[in-house]
Each structure stands twice: as C-alpha cells, then as structure tokens.
Design brief:
Strand content: 15-25%
CATH superfamily: Dehydroquinase, class II
Distance between the termini: 12 Å
Number of strands: 5
Radius of gyration: 14 Å
Number of helices: 5
Helix content: 25-40%
CATH class: Alpha Beta
Number of domains: 1
Bound molecules: 1,3,4-trihydroxy-5-OXO-cyclohexanecarboxylic acid
Order of helices and strands: EHHEHEHEEH
Structural class: alpha/beta
C-alpha cells in the first residue's frame, strides 16, 4: 500500500509558541502523534517530518510516487518557492496543501500560493483540524490508489 507523508516546512517546528494568536497553542509533536494514530487505526503507513531546509524538503518529496499521498504545509515557502511546486508536480503524488491560518485573510503576500497549482486542493484557516481533515481524505484516497494498482 502507498504511504502517506506529512511534510512540514520552514518554521513549523515552532508551533505552540509561535504567534499563538494566529497558529494556536498545539505543538507539532502533538499534531504529528494524532496523525500517526489516525494512520495506525486505519492500517496505513503514515510518517511526519519537518525541515527548515529547502533541499531536504525537495529530497523528501522526491521519495514519493503516484500511489503515495502527500499532506504538505510548506510554511512561508508556499508563497515563494517554485522548487517545492516543481517537486510535487514532478513526482505526481496526489497532495493536499494545509495551512493552520487563513492565508487569504492575512498580509497580501500570503494570499498567493505558488505550490497550490501542483496540489489537488488546499485546506486553510482551520488550525490543526485542517491536518486531521486532510488525513481523513488521504486515508480514503490511499485505498483507491491501491485498488487502481490492480
Ligand atoms: C502557514 C502560513 C504561512 O504564510 C506562514 O509563513 C507559515 C505558516 C500556516 O500554516 O498558516 O509559516 O503555512
């Protein structure tokens, strides 16, 4: 069966203490453990990683294939980093872009995502719940990706 990768980009290790009025008080560790638990309960392979290094993120995306599923919060790279978009497009992995905050309701530079065109869609503004909703979708999708495998 394909794997579900949850990849967090730049600065997301600070969740819990970074601008809590915007991002909430939940830590990345607690988001990741809940996501892994959801995967375990569904019998799916789920892993979560965070990096502040663009090349490392690109390498991690390159490990994925079309039968995997990607849940991606690129952080500020969302708005500027075509390399992340090209990597997602390049591997052909179905992906959901997740943001804790509503990027359309903040500074104007955040409203645009250069990564979103490479993704199936985007969930933003729902805090940590956005990740859990993305995981629910990924778990439903991973079965059909497997089924289409023959
Ligand atoms: C973010 C939104 C980005 O604009 C910001 O740079 C982040 C976090 C979010 O999850 O709301 O680092 O991706």
């Amino acid at each position: 069966m394909g794997k579900i990768a949850v990849l967090h980009g730049i600065n997301l290790q600070l969740l819990g203490r970074r601008e809590p009025e915007i991002y909430g008080r939940v830590t990345l560790e607690s988001i990741n453990s809940r996501l892994c638990r959801m995967g375990q309960e569904a019998g799916a392979e789920v892993y979560c990683r965070q990096t502040n290094h663009e090349g490392e993120m690109v390498d991690w995306i390159a490990e994925l294939g079309p039968r995997d599923f990607l849940i991606l919060n690129p952080g500020a790279w969302t708005h500027t980093h075509y390399s992340i978009r090209d990597a997602v497009k390049g591997v052909g992995t179905p992906a959901l872009e997740v943001h804790l905050s509503n990027i359309g309701a903040r500074e104007s530079f955040r409203a645009h995502s250069v990564v979103a065109p490479a993704c199936l869609g985007q969930i933003c503004g729902l805090g940590a719940d956005g990740y859990y909703l993305a995981m629910t979708y990924a778990l439903s999708r991973i079965d059909s990706l497997e089924a289409s495998d023959g």
